């Protein structure tokens, strides 16, 4: 369940040309991309953070999922600790996406509600769509202010027809790189 071999190869090539902290960020992103369709692994990471375990050393956790109805669509989520806070990046470049961005950053305010949401999604993937069309605050999330979102120069544009699996992966990779780069003070231009 790792990265597609083409993605891995591209990441390694960019990592070889990079230096310093950016090289470290790319390495972390590539190695964090493991067992991405596992709700159990993702929920376990949320529960660790809920218990007060410092999860920053583990890097970001990614979940690739989606829904089947009303029509099939792929999305992804990235969870990471940034400083003393925990954030969820909702990555959706197509159906039911935010009107202004493909990657929306939320601060986790209530782990219990968020864990219940993802457990429900594990039982019925169609519930995943509710985060994008409903009120994320009911799921324990608070949307961060615009100045804390990914810069528009980095945020991915909308997907083209029929490529939601690839577009959601790219959006998750961007969210992971952005989140990891914050601790290293890497400028947005370098992440892009």
What does this entry look like structurally?
With 192 residues, the protein is α+β, with helices and mostly antiparallel strands. Helices cover 42% and strands 17% of the residues. It is built from seven helices and five strands. The chain has a five-stranded antiparallel β-sheet, with helices on both faces. A hairpin with a 2-residue loop joins strand 2 (73-82) and strand 3. The chain is globular.
Short summary:
With 192 residues, the chain is α+β, with helices and mostly antiparallel strands. The chain is 42% helix and 17% strand.
Rg, alpha carbons: 15 Å
What's the total count of β strands? Answer: 5
Largest sheet: 5 strands, antiparallel
| Structural class by SSE content | alpha+beta
Distance linking N and C termini: 25 Å
Number of helices: 7
- The percent of residues in helical segments reads 40-55%
Q: What is the approximate shape? A: globular
Return the string of H and E elements. HHHEEEEHHEHH
What value does the average pLDDT take?
86
pLDDT < 50 runs, ≥5 residues: none
